[in-house]
Write a structure and sequence with these properties.
The protein is an alpha+beta fold. It has eight helices and four strands, in the order ββββαααααααα. The protein has a four-stranded antiparallel β-sheet, with helices on one face. Helix 2 runs antiparallel to helix 5 and helix 7 packs across helix 8.
Length: 229
C-alpha cells in the first residue's frame, strides 16, 4: 500500500535495512518498508517519510509484532524476492491480495529453502489441481520460482510453485485460512470428477463454458467455507 505520510512515523524496532516496526501519530503499530530505511536508524527515531515505500496496516486483528518476530531474522534478499512476487501478482490479479501475504510468503519461502538445503523433500499432492483450477496464480508462482532458483542458485522443484500459488489464492479470500484454500481445491477436484463420471464426458478445459463454470464454483465454495452464503 503506497502511502506518503505527513504525520511522524517513529521506529520501535529495526527489523533489517528495509523493514521497521513503527508507530504512527495515533500510536498504532505498523510495519513500514523502504530501501535503506532501517540503515543507521535506532529505536525512537522519526523515520524519513521520503524513504517509506509501503506501509503495512494489518486489519484482521493480527499484531504487527507477530509478523515482526517472524521476519526479524530472515535475510534481506527474501524481502526483495517476495516484494517482486506481490507486485507481479497485484498487476495480474488487479490488486486483490491481502497485505498479510507479504509476511506469510516470506515465512514460507525462507522455510522452504531451509528444508531444501537440509535435503528435506518438498511435496504438493495437489499440484495438478492448482495448475488446473488456478492457472493465473500458478503462472505467477512459476515465474517467482524461476527467479528464486536463479538468484539463489537453487533447484527448488515445481511443487514449490504450487505452494506459492496456494498463498496467492489464499490472499484473495476475505478470511485468510490456508486450510480452507486447500479444502476448496479438493472440492473442485471432486466436483469435476463427479460431473465427468455421471455424464460420461471429458470436460474441455479450453472452453469458455469450463472457465465460466470454474469461476462460479470457486466463488461458491469460497462463500460456503466462509459461511457467507
Amino acid at each position: 500500500k503506497k502511502r506518503m505520510m505527513a504525520e511522524p512515523i517513529k521506529a520501535i524496532k529495526i527489523l533489517n535495512n528495509s523493514l521497521v516496526l513503527s508507530s504512527d501519530a495515533d500510536n498504532n503499530e505498523i510495519i513500514v518498508m523502504g530501501k535503506g530505511i532501517g540503515f543507521n536508524s535506532k529505536t525512537g527515531d522519526i523515520l524519513d517519510p521520503a524513504k517509506i515505500e509501503k506501509t503495512f496496516i494489518l486489519k484482521d486483528g493480527t499484531s504487527p509484532r507477530e509478523f515482526a518476530r517472524l521476519i526479524e531474522h530472515v535475510g534481506e534478499e527474501y524481502v526483495h524476492i517476495v516484494n517482486k512476487i506481490i507486485d507481479d501478482a497485484n498487476r495480474q490479479l488487479h490488486g486483490r491480495l491481502s497485505e498479510q501475504v507479504f509476511f506469510t510468503l516470506i515465512d514460507h519461502i525462507s522455510f522452504a529453502i531451509e528444508r531444501y538445503r537440509k535435503g528435506i523433500s518438498i511435496q504438493n499432492r495437489l499440484l495438478y489441481e492448482v495448475k488446473r483450477f488456478y492457472p493465473q496464480e500458478f503462472a505467477i508462482a512459476s515465474r517467482a520460482l524461476n527467479d528464486i532458483n536463479q538468484q539463489m542458485n537453487l533447484e527448488l522443484p515445481e511443487e514449490e510453485a504450487g505452494n506459492i500459488a496456494f498463498h496467492l489464492v489464499n490472499a484473495q479470500t476475505d478470511v485468510q485460512n490456508m486450510e480452507n484454500t486447500l479444502q476448496s481445491v479438493k472440492m473442485l477436484k471432486d466436483i469435476f470428477n463427479i460431473i465427468q463420471y455421471n455424464f460420461h464426458i471429458v470436460i474441455d478445459k479450453e472452453s469458455i463454458n469450463y472457465s465460466r463454470f470454474l469461476t462460479h464454483m470457486q466463488f461458491f465454495i469460497q462463500r460456503l467455507l466462509e459461511n457467507s452464503l
